[in-house]
Amino acid sequence: MYPLTHLYFTKNVLGRLSSALALGSVLPDILTSVGMKWKEAHSQNIFPHKEMLLGNLIHGINLPGLDYYSDCAFEGQEGFAFQYAKHLEMDLTELGIPKEHSIWRGHNFIEMAIEVRLNQTEESELWKNLELASQDENLKAIIYDFLSEHNYNEIHLVDLALERFLTLRGNLDKLAIDYAKKLSAIYQLHIDPKNCQDLILKAQTLINGHYKLFLEKCCDQIKQDIAHFI
Ligand SMILES: [Zn+2]
User: Fold this and answer.
1) Which candidate in 27, 33, 158, 166 could, as Cys together with 56 as Cys, close a disulfide (CB 3.0–4.6 Å)?
2) Domain span at 188
3) How far is the CA of 71 from the centre of ligand 1 (A)?
4) How many domains does the chain have?
């Protein structure tokens, strides 16, 4: 999922959101940004700061957290975002995305659709928590140390990742431009941001009646599972 979705979700699971919780709740994606493989980055269950660990567990796949239910499995089927990504497969192959990548790319559109939707509500206030966290040198130093211990030395990428989250900020236009650039670079295509914007909007029509219930069900389960760590 995208950052605001994780901030919102952590707040719902724990009933509060501190700077440390905010930073922890995007930590797996920060680790991915510095070069850690997705699965490893989303499976960390030891971290030297309790609140950040809680946020991290609520995001990752080990607990299992939200990304497990969105990306891996939900109610005996593939992850929620993958279940709906099937309906975007044709649109993506028509844009030139290889068929074998179309579900993976499609799942990002489902997740962007949720992010954009949340950003249009009062939940957009939660960006402030991440903004504060991104200015907290003591908290960030804990991540830098953790990365150094795991032999990741390009710690400036942590700040770059946070800056990117806060710039895109759940905004439809910005996410569409960013994702069009990404797809164009990866597949050597010329994808118009308008195509990505249309796909995010199509994804919204697919998930509108379903994503809230999905988040609620995950929240109930994760509340129970995280209780052992609190
Ligand atoms: Zn993630």
Assistant:
1) 27
2) 3-229
3) 9
4) 1
pTM recorded for the entire structure: 0.97
CA atoms 90, 96, 97, 98: torsion sign: positive
Predicted local distance difference test score (pLDDT) of residue 168: 98
pLDDT at 117: 98
Count of Cβ atoms closer than 10 Å to residue 13 Cβ: 25
For ligand 1, a single-atom ion, the residues with CB < 5 A are: 28-29, 67
**Residue spans of alpha helices (H) in 96-210:** 99-119, 127-134, 137-149, 156-168, 172-187, 193-207
Q: How far is the CA of 1 from the centre of ligand 1 (A)?
A: 6
Which pLDDT belongs to residue 181?
A: 98
Task: State which H helix or E strand residue 73 sits in.
Answer: strand 73-74
The residue whose two tokens read 């930590």 is 27
Asked if residues 65 and 83 have their Cβ atoms less than 8 Å apart, the reply is no
- Structure tokens of 207? 């998930």
Low-confidence ranges of the chain (pLDDT < 50): none
- pLDDT tens-digit map of 12-39: 999 999 999 999 999 999 999 999 999 9
